[in-house]
Amino acid sequence: MLFFLLFPFFIFIFVYFFPYFWAMAISSVMSLNIKLKFQILLSVFLFVFVGFCAVYCYAIYTDHTLYLLFLAGYVIGTPLWVLRFYLNERTSKVRFYIGLAATLFIIWEMEVPQKIIFYNITKDKTMYDIEIVDKLFDGNTDDVNYKFSDEFKKCLNDLFSCPILPNSKQLQNQFYSIKDGKEIVVANVYGPYYGKTYLMLFFNSFNEKSLNFEESFYISYKQVFNHLENLKSSQKGENNGNK
Question: Is the dihedral angle over the CA atoms 88, 92, 97, 100 positive or is it negative?
Fold first, then answer.
């Protein structure tokens, strides 16, 4: 509800404020001491680069209003600001570098590289990456529990402890059993996660379920238990077939 009350503010941010900086960089390319053909190529590259970020993120997160606004701001605000800079001849090397730095900062804070990496890691996943640690595990999950890994717990409690980029080999959870009073790790569960940027934290603060990190949820823990049981059963079948 609060998000929609502040919708004009978000329109200002995405349609007016953000495009100002990349339009500044695009139009100020002509002030650089490089050949005209390179000025044109650089201008086109910056225009296409920001457009790619806006289109790609909206394409993979169509249910995310922020990326719809990001795309709308690019389509509406960019040509208007570029035209204004050209007409007023408000271009310079300093404006180019300021605009470029601000553009890269905005793209990072909008979590564009993080989202692209995250999506490409998880798009074909139907299961967590599971590594059975206990070679003596018999497939019986009745006494198996799960917990967050130490690294993941640190991320839960402290944003600065979260990785800035996701990767497929981040230890998220551990499944364990208690034997002779000792904790025996049965399996490690890997899944990508990363710490959210301050801008996205601000935007997500209007969401009641806001978290300081982004993580993957491929499948429920109950299904992980089933996977452990089935995996061990299949391994036993392969071993019996090789005898």
Answer: positive
